[in-house]
Structure formats: C-alpha cells, structure tokens
Design brief:
InterPro entries: AAA+_ATPase, P-loop_NTPase, Signal_recog_part_SRP54_M_sf, Signal_recog_particl_SRP54_hlx, Signal_recog_particle_SRP54_M, SRP, SRP54, SRP54_GTPase_dom. The chain is of the alpha/beta class and 444 residues long. Helix content is 58%, strand content 9%. It is built from 21 helices and eight strands. The protein has an eight-stranded mixed sheet, sandwiched between helices. Helix 5 packs across helix 12 and helix 6 packs parallel to helix 7. The two termini are 30 Å apart. Bound molecules: guanosine-5'-diphosphate (GDP).
C-alpha cells in the first residue's frame, strides 16, 4: 500500500500530540523534526519538505492553536490542512471544450502506464459521466502500442482510431478529430508516443500535435514508483510542453508517496487522477483532502461510499452512507458490507479507507490472509439477531457460544468486537470532518 511508511510515522507523531492540553513551542519543534524526517524518508522533495515544515510550525505556534481548548488536535488539523494544500488544495476539474470534441493528449515516458491510463480514462468518462470517447493510437514508433490500444478498445467496446505506423502522428490526430466530429463523439483521447527518456524529437512531435489539436488538457502520466524521477519528468514535460495535469499511476503499489506529495509544489500542476491497479476500472479522481486524510489514518469514507455507489446497489450505498454518518452501523451492516465490498476491489485497499483501519490489526491483516475475512464472517453469522444489532449485550457467556459456533476462539471474537467498537468511534470522530469535505468537488 502506498504511503505505508509515511502514514505510520506521521500517525505515530500525531498520536503523541493529540491529547495534549498544552502545546509548547518545543513540543512543536520536536514534532516537526519527526514530520520532517518522515517526509524525507517518503522521498518528498527536500525543498517541499522545508517549506511544509515552516508553514506548519508557524501556524502551530500561532494564535489559532495556542488559544484553542484542544491544541493537540488543532495541530493535527493544521498538518492535515497543509498536507491537503500541498497536494493541490481544491479538487480540480477536467476541461470540456466549448466546441466538441474535447481533445485530451496523453503524454509520458514509456512504461509509465500511458496506454493503460488512456483506456481507463475513456472507461471512466463513459461509466461515470456518460461521455463518448474516441481512443486514438498515435504512438507510431511502437507498433505494439497501437495493438495494445486496439485491444483495450475491444475490451471496452469503444472505437479506436488508428492509421497504422506509416502515417505521422500529427496527421493521425487531425483525422481522428474529424472522425470524432463526424461520429458525434465528445472526447478524443490521443495516446502519444513514449520514450525511455525525454528527447528533443519527441518533444517537437508533441508540440506539433498540441499546435494542431488545441487540446483542452495535456495529461502527463507518471509512475509513482519512480519517486523523485517522476517529479523531474513532470517538471521537464511541463517546461517544454506545458501540461495541464498529472496522472499518477501505480499508487496501488508500495510507493513511498514522495511523488504524490511533491509534484504539485514543484510543477504547479495538479494531480488529476491516480491509477490504483492494472484493471480498466482502477482510475480514481484525485482528491487532495481525502488523500491527506488517508495518510493521517483518518480514513477515506467518501471514496469508500463512491466506490459503493459505482459498484453496489445504489439504495444500499445510500443506506450505508447514512449509517456511517449516524453511527447506527451494526454487525448486520458489517456482514452485508463484507460481501459487497469484495466487488469493489482488493480488500486491503478498501479496508484502509476506513477511519482508524490501520489500528485494527485484525482488519489490516486481511490483506495477507483472505481467509481471515471468512473467519470474521463466521463469527458474525454465529451471533443472534439481537447481538448483531446491539453488540454491547455480548457478555462472556455469549462470546464463548459465538466462538464455538463459528469454529474460532474467544480471543478472535474479542478482537472483532473491539475492532468494531474502535471503528465506530473513529467514524464518529471523522464524520464532522468528512461532512465538510463532501461539499467540494465535481467534474465536467
Ligand atoms: P506505457 O508504455 O506508458 O503506455 O505503459 P503501459 O500502459 O503499457 O503500462 C505499463 C505497465 O504498467 C503495464 O503492465 C500496466 O498494466 C501497468 N500499469 C499501468 N497503470 C498501473 C497502475 O495504476 N497500477 C498498476 N499496478 N499497474 C499499472
């Protein structure tokens, strides 16, 4: 999971200051020393770290914190706000051209995930926003890339425009735009050529395509696993071509997260999407606040709910949202969710979106042992309806019965009950903050 090390260290640091009734300058200093190290270790650009630490320190010893009744929590709030700001603050929108079709150029180095992302973006545009995209194969130097896009088009049942590898990319782009107009398609996604390194010929060609097609967006696809290199690539592309946004891929891997935290500050260009897997539905809009929340272990209930809305029955998702907000989440809901959640993606990713999930050792172990989920299900199924609705009635005798009924141990039952309680507590703490976040955001 991305950000694992950073999240762990930052959360450890925050934990120390959370409950403090008084925060002195030296507390802040010490905390910031740890924050600084955590960020540097996560491969965040050192200038970015310096600036971040400076801002958080200034605010933390300022009036808003010192005069507050809960200074410890105020400091954490400051860290979260600044982390959000660092990654872009407000969410950005995707441009739509006044005169369709809207052209989006996809650029990036070879292997970054450009072709896959082109397919994912087309899928998202159609699935979530009901748009009709045309995929354009303009990487004429790598015939395999053309084939790859055609295969993606087939999988998605979407049109792919290609003129083979003997026609210039500029000409391909030109004819593709005409084709989209003729066929009343509203987005043209141009998969341009990649290289192993940035070179002049590539940039010249991209500039020509830009000139001719007046793209609304130029998305640079970078691999988050390459850390600072991704940031350098973004800087070069931006200087030479003028990108409008970045797609950060492979965030499902165990990247330390430096690129995600540095790109915006270094290039001034926002991260618009993140790639969370190889499948065609593994592309998410980037929400800086939600990401900050995930890094600080506050969970990401909103993304969880959205996933539920796209993958699960809508009425049920609404119900879940309501329950999470009103804290009337029971073991019945939990069981129901366990079943549905499986359709939303890898379980470990999903569970980590729950507030405080990192502290629930049992839950986070699920990532290595899917069987564990089966045991959790068995425990819940062994509860009576009353127990599922009101776990507080589960006394020692009942625990014994449940353990026996589910073929597990009393310790396991205890652990689950404790985790469930913790989860509800965290949800409570977070719901106010999440409510605020919900008001923001949007798309075309
Ligand atoms: P291109 O050369 O930039 O067009 O890169 P490709 O689209 O061919 O992708 C290179 C590899 O990265 C492929 O194996 C993709 O499946 C993989 N890939 C792309 N995006 C992601 C992602 O978000 N997560 C993971 N795990 N793999 C990805």
């Amino acid at each position: 999971m991305a950000f694992e090390g950073l999240a762990e260290r930052l959360q450890g640091t925050m934990q120390k200051i959370r409950g403090k009734g008084k925060v002195s300058e030296s507390d802040v200093k010490e905390m910031m020393r740890e924050v600084r190290l955590a960020l540097l270790e996560a491969d965040v650009n050192f200038k970015v770290v310096k600036e971040f630490v400076k801002k958080v320190s200034e605010r933390s010893v300022g009036q808003e914190v010192m005069k507050s009744l809960t200074p410890g929590q105020q400091v954490i709030k400051v860290v979260k706000e600044e982390l959000t700001e660092l990654m872009g603050g407000e969410e950005s929108r995707i441009g739509t051209s006044k005169r369709p079709p809207t052209v989006i150029m996809m650029v990036g180095l070879q292997g970054a995930g450009k072709t896959t992302t082109t397919g994912k973006l087309a899928n998202l545009l159609r699935k979530k926003y009901n748009r009709k995209p045309l995929l354009v194969a303009a990487d004429v130097y790598r015939p395999a890339a053309i084939k790859q896009l055609e295969t993606l088009g087939k999988q998605l049942d979407m049109p792919v425009f290609s003129l083979g590898d003997q026609v210039s990319p500029v000409e391909i782009a030109k004819q593709a735009i005409q084709k989209a107009k003729d066929d009343h398609l509203d987005y043209v996604l141009i998969d341009t050529a990649g290289r192993l390194h940035i070179d002049e010929t590539l940039m010249d060609e991209l500039k020509q395509i830009k000139e001719l097609s007046s793209p609304e967006e130029i998305f640079l696809v970078v691999d988050s696993m390459t850390g600072q290199d991704a940031v350098n690539v973004a800087e070069s592309f931006n200087e030479q071509l003028g990108i409008t946004g970045v797609v950060l891929t492979k965030l499902d891997g165990d990247t330390r997260g430096g690129a995600a935290l540095s790109i915006r500050a270094v290039t001034g260009k926002p991260i618009k999407f993140v790639g969370m897997g190889e499948k065609l539905d593994a592309l998410e809009l980037f929400h800086p606040e939600r990401m900050a929340s995930r890094i600080l272990g506050m969970g990401d209930v909103l993304t969880l709910i959205e996933k539920a809305q796209t993958n699960v029955d809508e009425a049920k998702a609404k119900e879940l949202e309501q329950k999470m907000r009103t804290m009337s989440f029971t073991f019945d809901d939990f069981l129901d969710q366990l079943g549905q959640v499986r359709s939303m993606g890898p379980l470990d990713e999903i569970l980590k979106m729950l507030p405080g999930a990192n502290k629930m050792k049992g839950l986070s172990n699920v990532q290595v042992d899917e069987k564990q989920i089966g045991r959790v299900e068995a425990i819940i199924r062994s509860m009576t309806p009353a127990e599922k609705q009101q776990p507080e009635i589960i006394n020692a005798g009942r625990r014994k019965r449940i353990a026996r009924g589910s073929g597990t141990s009393i310790q396991e039952v205890n652990r689950l009950l404790k985790q469930f309680e913790d989860m509800k507590k965290m949800m409570k703490q977070m719901s106010a903050m999440q409510q605020k976040g919900k008001k923001k955001g949007g798309f075309p």
